[in-house]
Every structure is written in structure tokens, then in C-alpha cells.
Amino acid sequence: MNTSNNLRLKQRFRTVKMDVEKSSSSSFEDLTNAEDTKDIRAAQAATSVSEALAESVAAKVDDDDDNVKKSEEVIAVDDVVEKGVREGDDEEEGVCDILGNKLLIKRIVKKAPESAEHPNRGDLVTIKFTGKLEDGTIVEKEESFQCHVGDFEVIQGLDMVLPMMYVGEQAQLTVDPRFGYGATGLKKETSAETIVPPNASLIYDVELLNYQYEDFKDLKTFDILRKYGSRKKERANYFYKRGEYNNAIHLYRRALDYLDNRDGDPDAEFGKEDLELSNTDSQNLLEDRLIVYNNLAMAQIKIGAFDAALQSVEHVLRCQPNNPKALYRKGRVLEGKADTQGAIKLLQKVAVLEPDNRAVQSDLARLFIKARREEHNEKEMYQKMLGQAKKMEQTTADRQKTPLVDNSKLKLLGFLMGTILVGVAGVAIYRYKY
């Protein structure tokens, strides 16, 4: 009996030690898989308590068999301490510095039930929230707002915290401008009135009402596909207008995921489309998808991703070869790829399709000037190349002629020397004889 108790105690010690090691090696940056949102300092303090407790349990295991009862009492205390580790320090309870730099702080106002679960990236959540400035001015308020986690459908600070909340939990967030509306702020679409000033910190009161993991079978209706696709597209347009092109590109691609009548289930039979739509619904989805491809191409042009933009615009031109916007954007892509003549041809085609489009006429005139300048520069370059070639040719010819001149001089000198020697020899012979 005592031996079995000792074995249980040793096993318990190993379990406590493993919990301590796991707690000390956990990464704070893994926000989406966090089991709770307690402050790190509280967790570290609780970890040190667990380490001390583990040493105590080990000492008890090495004691004599008569001390088994005392060891069992220590295990009971251990259970209480482990519960304290989960609950955190009373002074820091419910407060979490998400990034560790005071830029995003979460404070739990109301805890979720023990059995509650938290959403993951991509899940559809329903939240209730109120966003305020530091002076208490309400800037946005929603009673039952739906969004997909990780799709930038709310401000970045709130989007980052949603995977850390449990259903039924209420929390207050303090959001730095970097994770809010930034240096641009927020203005009304219909007027220049400012809603959120530039570089303004925000305070959000949030409640997670529900979340849902959406399987492929949940997305097999035309209404849902178009609803989600249009929502992603509108949010992408919002980021495009703010000049946040990378976020816009992400959401345009997410919109394309929904604006498609093909079944996206990777386990489905190849070539099988479970979603059967009427011709009208299919045409509507196609038109929405082409609009998104056009917008995606423009956002990609803005960041200089010309190859990706060319692929996006080709999707449109395969279905609509005379789409003016697609032709114009392809012209912009070719200009970016230094094909000015190709860009001119496309913009001329757009000018025929839309003769009243002044922007196209202006760009076309600019491209003509650019083409003439490039032609002039090209001629100058060729002239320089030809001039250098002629110089090199002349130098080579001169080098070839120079040895010929030197050889003729040597021959003349040799002839003169030979004549002189003959004359001297003749004089010497004459004197010798006579």
C-alpha cells in the first residue's frame, strides 16, 4: 500500500514538474491559442509557487513511508495552488497587456462561464461593442455585429483580441492609434466631418455573444456567398481609399473566395460542383467577381506588384475582352513593366470605347510624350554606340597603317646604307689597285 502511494506521489511530482516546464516555455506571442488572458507577471509569480511546491512534493516522496499521509495533504494543497495559477493574482486579475508594450491592453469586466469556448481565426463571431475616445465621445456602436476573425472587418486591436475572448465574456480594451485608425483617423463618407481624430487612442467595451465555425456546407447558398463577398469587397474598398493597399488586397482575395459558385471543399470529388445556381445567380456572382478582380489589380498596381496585377486583369479580359477598366489597368501594368508602346495601344482602344473619358485622354497624351522621349534617348544611345564604334574602327585602321609607314622608312634607310657601303668599298678597291 505504501509503495503504491509512493509511486502515485512520484507520478504526481513528475506531472507538477512538467506543468512548471510547460508554463515557463510557453510563448506569449501565441495569442490565438492562449487558455486565458491573465497578466504575464501573475503567471510567472504563480509558476514560481508551483516550482517551490514541486520541490516540496519531491522531498515528501523521499521521506519514510510513515509520512505518506502528510504527502497526501501536500498534494491537496497543490491542487489549491494550481487553481490559483489558473485564476491569477488578485491584484492583477483580469488585466492583460496583450503585446507587452502597453499599446493594447485588455481588462476583463465580466468573466465567461467555465464551460465557454473561444473562437479561432476564420470563425464567424457575433459581438456587441462600443468604441469611445478617451474623453468618452462614442465613435461607433454595434449591438449585434458579425465578422470573421482575422479579416480586418473591425479595427486591428479588436480583431487581435477576439480569439482571446470566451463566449459570454465582457472586456474593455485600450487601443493605441497604431492598432486603431492611425494617423489618418476616421471621417464620414458623406462629408469631411471627423469622427476619430488622427493619432487618437480608443477605448472599446466588447462582449462576445457567439461564434460559429463555418463548414463548406454552411456556404452553399447564393445569398450567403454574395452577402459575405460583398461585405469583404466593401471593406477592401474602405482600406483602398485610406491608402492601406495590403489590407485591401487581402480582403479582395477573401471576397473572391466567396464570390464563386464552385465547391471549395478539398475533399469533394474533382470537378464536382455541389452548389447549383440559376443562370441569373451565376451571372450575378460572375459580375461581382470581375469587379473585385478589377479592384484587386488596381491595388496591386499601387504597390508595384505588376505581375500579380496582370494576372488579375487577365481574369476579367478572358470574360469581357472589351472591359474598359480592365484594358486601362492592363495599360497601366504594361507602362509599369516599361512597355510604353503596348500601353499606348491599350489606352487607344479604351479611348475608342470611352471617347469622353478625359483621364484616358490625359494619360494617352502623357504616354505619347514619354514614348517620344524614350525614342529620342534611344537614338542618342545608338548614336553614341555608333560613334564609339567608328572611333574604335578608326583607331584600329590607324594602328594597322602605322607599321606600313615604319617599314617603308626602314627600307629607304637600308637602301641608302647599302649604297654608301658599296661606294666606300669601290673607293677602297680603286686605291688598292692604283
Describe the protein.
This protein has 434 residues and is of the alpha+beta class. It is 57% helix and 12% strand. The strands form two sheets. A six-stranded antiparallel sheet has the order 1-2-5-8-3-4. Strand 6 and strand 7 form a beta hairpin. The radius of gyration is 40 Å and the shape is elongated.
Short description:
The chain is of the alpha+beta class. It has 11 helices and 8 strands.
Write a concise keyword list for the protein shown above.
434 residues, 8 strands, single chain, two-stranded antiparallel sheet, 57% helix, elongated, alpha+beta, 6-stranded antiparallel sheet, disordered N terminus
